[in-house]
Structure prediction request, 248 residues.
Amino acid sequence: MKIVMFARCLALLLSLMALPTWAQDARGITAYQEIIDVAPGGSATVTLNVTLADSGLDRIDLPLNFAKPENFAVDAKDLKATAAAGKTGDVKVIKLQFDRKPAGEVKVQITFTAKEFFNWEKAKGAHGVYNLSYTFANATATDINGYALKVLLPTGYDIAGITSSTPKATGEEAEPPYDFRTQSGRTALNLRSKSVAPGKGAAIAFGFEKDERNPLLVIALGIIIAALALYLKRDVLTDPDFVKETVA
Prediction:
């Protein structure tokens, strides 16, 4: 595993050295958020929210860490833009093209579908726990600041545990690099990194499992408990000599 990771990092660094001048000037990525919405079938809808400082460029390469991206769409305020999967050297990238050179800071939202993002059968481990890992590799020539990742699990699944993360959680940081919470009835795992330098990455590996709690069963159980409580109090409530206490 270490040899494979070393080989990947070496290939990435060599590719960065070979970047054309216009790509090396693609500076000023001040915020970068990835939202991976995992579908029950294994595909994922990916949303990138990217903030670019004034770079004076009408095209830029962004990291691409998904094997089968398709159906790209771009929303850039006051600008027309397109995005497509491509390569710079041997590195997979998203080629973002504007209709003109942006003036000042630009906020761009890119959405696409990642086919076969997650293989449920291969990812299933012991005791019904599924293992998912994702690595964001910075294939640009500059720091990516304010990196954030959100992974939305399909409805009915909960986090079983975190296997590893980059940055690592030390327990001494003011804000841990990751957390998970409920969002619109679904579990969302969040990962943060202040910056990701060229040739470096941010990563998360975790397990998740099916939430076996049946919501209808919980509601029914609540009704039964309430009815039982009323039943047990029936003698008191129907007693003609019962006097309700009042507090002065």
Summary: Helices lie at 2-17, 21-24, 120-123, 215-232, 234-237. DSSP finds five helices and 13 strands in the chain.
